[in-house]
Design goal:
eight-stranded parallel beta sheet; about 280 residues; alpha/beta; TIM Barrel
Length: about 280
């Protein structure tokens, strides 16, 4: 089984060489690529999808250099400024540099704009034309925006990160936000990342309260529309990088091995191309 980490970030600790975005405090967690590679090797992880971190804003130079040094281990998802003069042109330029996905973060849009407005629709449409995947860093309050984009441009592949930031009820009550995420499976090009377990769960490792959600997502989306991500470097302090993968092994009832292969690597390679 080839394991691909579908969600993580890397950042430099040399702001003179790799500037942080204006107003950004230096990150406290170690997030350099060398550290990540050491952890990946210890956990037998073949490759990772690097999502451009907000730490560096729209300056992709550190991720550029990381992709260039280890092209067999890493694929990149870029971050476009939706307030730029020409966001679509910025996307074209970054894809020309080798990025295979683009992240939508609603916090970066103008205060009076939504992701399903003119800028978001132009970017989403262009992503589909370029054959790259959109990744959504969203909360349930943004689900309607995602649904609009998925309905208007049904050929664009997209991913909802981190369970859509839905959170299980401590009392095991029905979570309406999660039910809506389940219903969004009707958009065939929409995918979900099984990631950020420590932040979503109300429990300690291995986050038992998330296991039912994993199985419900498999039933709704199928395994080939789900992917596993650790959310490095945050996972290191929350549980440990190796524990980020051990969660998958602890899930009960156990996931069918063929489905497991898709979730732990196959889906990511289907969307972003092969690693190695």
């Amino acid at each position: 089984m080839k394991k691909i980490d579908s969600h993580l970030h890397v950042w430099a600790h040399e702001p003179q060489a790799y500037p942080y975005r204006p107003g950004q405090d230096p990150p406290t967690a170690r997030g350099d690529a060398e550290f990540l590679l050491d952890l990946m090797d210890k956990s037998d992880i073949a490759g990772s999808l690097i999502v451009q971190p907000i730490v560096h804003g729209f300056d992709h130079s550190y991720v550029d250099d990381t992709l260039g040094r280890w092209p067999d281990r890493f694929v990149g998802m870029c971050l476009v400024d939706p307030q730029a003069h020409d966001p679509v042109g910025m996307l074209d330029e970054l894809v020309g540099r080798g990025y295979r996905g683009v992240r939508f973060n609603p916090a970066l849009w103008r205060e009076d704009e939504l992701m399903n407005g003119d800028v978001g629709q132009a970017l989403y449409k262009r992503a589909g034309e370029l054959g790259i995947t959109v990744g959504f860093l969203i909360s349930p309050q943004n689900f309607e925006e995602v649904e609009t984009l998925a309905a208007v441009y049904p050929e664009t592949n997209a991913i909802v990160d981190h369970f859509g930031h839905c959170v299980p009820s401590p009392e095991s009550a029905v979570a309406p936000e999660f039910e809506r995420l389940i219903a969004m499976a009707r958009y065939p090009k929409l995918h979900v990342k099984l990631s950020e377990f420590p932040r979503a769960s109300n429990q300690e490792f291995p986050y038992f309260d998330m296991f039912d959600w994993v199985h419900r997502l498999i039933d709704a989306y199928s395994a080939d529309r789900l992917m596993w991500g650790t959310d490095f470097p945050f996972i290191v302090e929350q549980a440990g990088y190796d524990k980020g993968w051990e969660i998958a092994e602890r899930i009960q009832p156990a996931i069918d091995p063929a489905l497991f292969d898709m979730i732990l690597g196959g889906t990511c390679e289907r969307l972003f191309g092969p690693w190695g």
